[in-house]
Amino acid sequence: MPPAKSELRPPKVPDGFRVEREFPVGRHPLLAVFPGLDRLPPAARLESDAERRSRLFDGTCVEIVDQDLWMYVAPWDLPKGARRRWKPVMTPGRDCIVIGQGHLRESPEAVLFMDVYHELCHVVQRRDGANLWEPGVSYVERWTEIEAYRFVVREARDLGADDAFLRDYLKVEWISDGEHKALLGQVGVSDR
Length: 192
Prior knowledge:
By secondary structure, the protein is of the alpha+beta class. It has one domain. 44% of the residues lie in helices and 9% in strands. It has a four-stranded mixed beta sheet with strand order 1-2-4-3. Helix 6 crosses helix 7. The longest helix has 19 residues.
């Protein structure tokens, strides 16, 4: 199971945010694992068109895996360079968010709230033609990551998250300290 992303006090999640933590490993509808996610205010901010929003939430699934990981959007094809360092779940033509079972069961609700909306940003980006795994571009320089992190940072601030919580949330193990500092600057979070 991944460690808790923050030992700091996470913000309170919005009323109506729910997580069904006991789903078994396997594929499930997004709204079964996160019931009502499509009716929260961030859903309309993410996708303002009601028809597209309905397709986004109804057409996206969750794949719960027994692996030590957070969340990611399952690629449709194996990204270049992934063969050596990453063996992702792939879902050709199907929008799917992969979630580590430990993360789903143990992480604070605020972290799951931010993570699932971050990944839904990526689903929207991909539907609009973005390459989520652009080769040769650093994780913290990808516009897709910056846009998704900016979205969830704004949502977390609206819930009362402070910079200490956000700094901790944005410190992911696959980036260096220098990249972390760059990411903080990109999304408007103080590095102190």
